[in-house]
């Protein structure tokens, strides 16, 4: 048995229906972000930078691109014989087997994987948030408080608090009430979906939850309330830096645009907390003499002959002559023809926009899904 103090488990199987066309053939954590990353890179990089070397990634919906991206974990220094990264899809057992029926059930189905490392603590994470966080500080807080569960929380406005699980706490951050998406929230401390559990205790509650036919097998709806009802010590760990749930088209677009803001608190160029990802073997970008680029991220392998303003352009994108791209996100390997106008849009992977087309407007966000072809002189709004 390999003894580890802490094992991280990343929930990465979400379908992400609110991202519409971008997740029809792709798990949400594998959606591209920020010019050269996938969303899950931020959680994996947080683990690597926090000194966590044993991680299980629970996949389910459309896992192929995600699995290929993670590989053996080399970009995050997780290609290890003792620990490292392990992909954990639902699997068949002697008694049959099911898809993961909820977040708690996903961990329950992988008890044997966790027990292999005999950990004191489990760090439960989501694979679809954009943020930089040192989990070792949260673990230190958990130990100091002698907590049974520590929940990462961030302050949100009271107007949006009803979208989250809300923690009501004492002055020393002990949680005395947990409300799942309350209509009238009593506080603005929102759960980030980041938990540290004492493993032996959590294992006991997961087994009980599995035997409860009335349960949703969910941490927020079932496990956390039951722990509270039984008098265990739950504490809220406050996080005050940038954090974004990019589960909607609006939030995904906003988070990409945040990277272009001079005053943005989320710095992807921070050498002290690097965001790691797969580096593709692509040539240097080529900026033609007809091109004009302003306040934009343009990744390697791009050939640009048109105008790009306030936009995020991923690797391998071609931008034709007299084309204008504004306030938009253009994902990997797209081909944009001549005389195209793209405004406030997200263009999915490997899509082709033929010449003389108009995509988007200055109001709503227009989405072109992955592997789409827009014919010449089309108007898509």
From TrEMBL:
The keyword Transferase applies. It comes from the Bacteria. It holds the Pfam family Hexapep_GlmU. Its EC number is 2.7.7.27. CDD domains: ADP_Glucose_PP, LbH_G1P_AT_C. Residues 289-362 form the Glucose-1-phosphate adenylyltransferase/Bifunctional protein GlmU-like C-terminal hexapeptide domain. The keyword Nucleotide-binding applies. GO terms for molecular function: glucose-1-phosphate adenylyltransferase activity. Keywords: ATP-binding, Carbohydrate metabolism, Glycogen biosynthesis, Glycogen metabolism, Nucleotide-binding, Nucleotidyltransferase, Transferase. It catalyses: alpha-D-glucose 1-phosphate + ATP + H(+) = ADP-alpha-D-glucose + diphosphate. Homotetramer. HAMAP family: GlgC. Belongs to the bacterial/plant glucose-1-phosphate adenylyltransferase family. This is Glucose-1-phosphate adenylyltransferase. It comes from Clostridium aestuarii. The gene is glgC.
């Amino acid at each position: 048995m390999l003894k580890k103090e802490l094992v991280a488990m990343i929930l990465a199987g979400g379908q992400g229906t609110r991202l519409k066309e971008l997740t029809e053939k792709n798990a949400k954590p594998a959606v591209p972000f920020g010019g050269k990353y996938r969303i899950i890179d931020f959680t994996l990089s947080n683990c690597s930078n926090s000194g966590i070397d044993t991680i299980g990634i629970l996949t389910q919906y459309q896992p192929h691109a995600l699995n290929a991206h993670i590989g053996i974990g080399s970009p995050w220094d997780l290609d290890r014989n003792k620990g490292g990264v392990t992909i954990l899809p639902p699997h068949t057992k002697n008694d049959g087997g099911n898809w993961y029926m909820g977040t708690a059930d996903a961990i329950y189905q992988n008890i044997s994987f966790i027990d292999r490392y005999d950990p004191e603590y489990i760090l439960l994470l989501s694979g679809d948030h954009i943020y930089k966080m040192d989990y070792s500080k949260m673990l230190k807080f958990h130990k100091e408080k002698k907590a049974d569960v520590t929940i990462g929380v961030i302050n949100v406005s009271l107007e949006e608090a009803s979208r989250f699980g809300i923690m009501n706490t004492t002055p020393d951050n002990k949680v005395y009430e947990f409300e799942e998406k309350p209509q009238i929230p009593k506080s603005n401390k929102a759960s980030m979906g980041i938990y540290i559990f004492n493993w032996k205790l959590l294992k006991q509650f997961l087994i009980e939850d599995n035997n409860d036919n009335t349960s949703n097998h969910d941490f927020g709806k079932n496990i956390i309330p039951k722990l509270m009802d039984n008098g265990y010590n739950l504490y809220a760990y406050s996080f005050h830096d940038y954090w974004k749930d990019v589960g909607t088209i609006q939030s995904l677009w906003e988070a990409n645009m945040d990277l272009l803001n001079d005053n943005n608190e989320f710095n992807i160029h921070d050498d002290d907390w690097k965001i790691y990802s797969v580096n593709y073997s692509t040539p240097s970008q080529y900026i033609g003499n007809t091109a004009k680029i302003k306040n934009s991220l343009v990744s390697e392998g791009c050939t640009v002959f048109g105008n790009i303003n306030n936009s995020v352009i991923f690797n391998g994108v071609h931008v034709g002559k007299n084309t204008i791209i504004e306030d938009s996100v253009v994902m990997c390997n797209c081909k944009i023809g001549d005389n195209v106008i793209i405004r406030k849009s997200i263009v999915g992977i490997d899509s082709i926009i033929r010449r003389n087309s108009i995509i988007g407007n200055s109001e709503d966000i227009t989405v072109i899904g992955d592997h789409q072809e827009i014919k010449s002189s089309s108007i898509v709004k």
